[in-house]
Write a structure and sequence with these properties.
- The complex is a heterodimer of chains A (about 130) and B (about 375).
- Chain A is mainly beta.
- Chain A folds into 2 domains: about 50 residues, no CATH class; about 60 residues, OB fold (Dihydrolipoamide Acetyltransferase, E2P).
- Chain A has 1 helix and 8 strands; from the N terminus they run αββββββββ.
- Chain A has a 5-stranded antiparallel sheet, with no helix packed on it. A 3-stranded antiparallel sheet of chain A has the order 2-1-3.
- In chain A, strand 5 and strand 6 form a beta hairpin.
- The longest helix of chain A has 10 residues.
- Chain A is elongated, with a radius of gyration of 16 Å.
- In chain B, the strands form 2 sheets. A 9-stranded mixed sheet of chain B has the order 3-2-4-7-1-8-11-10-9, sandwiched between helices.
- The model of chain B has no long low-confidence stretch (mean pLDDT about 95).
Amino acid sequence: MSADPRFDRPGPDDVFNAALAEGRFRLQRCRVCGAMRCPPGLVCLACGSPDLAWVAVSGAGEVYATTTVRAREGDYNVAIVALAEGPRMMSRVEGLAPEAVAIGMKVMARIAPEPEPHVVFKPVEHQP
Amino acid sequence: MTALRGQVAVVGIGNTRRWNAPGRTPFDQAQEAAILALEDCGLGLKDVDGLFCAISSSGLPVLNMAEKLGIRPRHADGTMVGGASFLFHLQAAVSALAHGLCDVALIVYGSNQLSAGGRLVSMPDPQPYEAPYRPRYPISSYALAASRHMHTYGTTREQLAEVALSARAWANLNPDAFARGPLTRDAVLGARMISDPLSKADCCLVTDGGAALVLTRADRAMDMKAAPVYVLGTGTAVSHRQIAAMPDLATTAAVESGQRAYAAAGLGPRDIDHVMVYDAFTITTLMFLEDLGFCAKGEGGPYIASGAIAPDGSLPVNTNGGGLSCNHPGMYGLFTLVEAVAQLRGICGARQVAGCEVALAHANGGVLSSQATAILGSAATL
């Protein structure tokens, strides 16, 4: 095989999901410039380097944008959370009424197991 | 200004005006629009050698369109970036025509989204990093952007309501608009919430429809049936796919596409007589007017609330009634160009903008993902 060995490891979506299944929230950090990316991919979005390392995410974040989806089965929150490490991700803030989720709220990640493992957030107890 | 300014003209427009037309496929609507556009300029199907097409429900729209119309284009472009696709096609057609890759370009679209079920149909394009959170697509993405705009600039739902009311006021001057009749502020503000802060009244219509444009180089355009409308400048920008990847949810890439179009045309916002912006939701009209420079950033709410974009206001915006009140067949972008050309031709009846010489059309695709701006002008602007 003459494929470039730098890309021999499993695809980044598979690695991300495998980590979640083991209860770990991991993302890639650039070995060149230190930027973290979410969702995973093959290059650093800040500098373009393909030299990325999987690292644990702290789970700390802040609500960047929020909406309450009105549904027959019950209203629920959809939010964009800015992780402390920089990147943003779509998620859900739980543990309070969906319309009480506010931009700027400090939140902490946990991994919800069903239906497939995915990252959700809850407010931290002491908001600054 | 670029060398392409005024080199290419829109010579034909087609609009089926069939917003609820059961028994027709998207390609039926598109074919009808193509026939109307070619008849409008006096050319025939056999003259078309450049085909530009995107259809929500088809992965190979160019091949289907060419076969159905019996044409064998030597240049084709099926770029698919959502509702802005047709303004990307316009930019590509200008370049292809100017460089002799084709002589007669047809840009065409059709949809049966209302009669086929009344729901927006999106291209199959799974988003595994959004799916677990069940955002309603695409409205929740626009709602997230609206939440950010409100947080950053203090924009209110009352200000957004003025966008819907202005669109309806224009639609009431357009006999071809799908949603006509009185609309009150209370009705808009009392509409059922779908994804906060956006309610049903903040959403565009879901209709059927078909539209088409025919373009040639300017020298040939003089010989057509209708007065040519010249392409003075175009600009496009691609920003992201998922809303979480948008760099700043309160500022769109219309800033970039607009600057490119203004630079190409050698014009600025103050030179524009008529504006069409893709109003998929009320918040998009507001953000695009800011990002295209018609008011200061963050001032879109007060600007619109002042009545600026209503029929008696200072800036005629979405004079057909827009996606909110005229028509919205899934991907609306081409209709912004059709109305801009009609205004520049001076054929718009009760809604005609007096002295309309320069029009700006702006379209959006995905979830504020792709942006494209075109500036069109009459012969007086060359």
